[in-house]
Amino acid sequence: MWNAFMGWTGVDQYDEANQVGQRFLDDYQRRCGRRPEWCVPVVNCDVARTLLQAVTDAHPLSPRGVKEALERVKMLPAASGAPGTRISFGKWTRRGWMGTGYLVARQLDADGVNSHLVDRFGEE
What domains can you pick out in the chain, each with its CATH number? Predict the structure, then answer.
């Protein structure tokens, strides 16, 4: 199946230059003995940190309180995306991840497991 992807460029959220994500993966490797360098672990880290911040800031701890606390999450450094990606919500902002380089272009390596960065969107 991987051979079908060879030569194609895909859009991804994992960027090895994002130091927030690299620190998370360093800690993960120390604790678990492996280093999953792909989008799911760093995106899940972002989601967990965002929800943790909102739940701890929710007053009262109710669906409405959590929604309003999520709207107060501002400029949280993201583990996913290009360096400088932030997570912010607001009354009318629901997408979360912010930054010109959030999505990056990657290609699958010949080993069918690893990938390499091709380009960052939004960079000059």
Answer: 8-120 (3.40.50.2300)
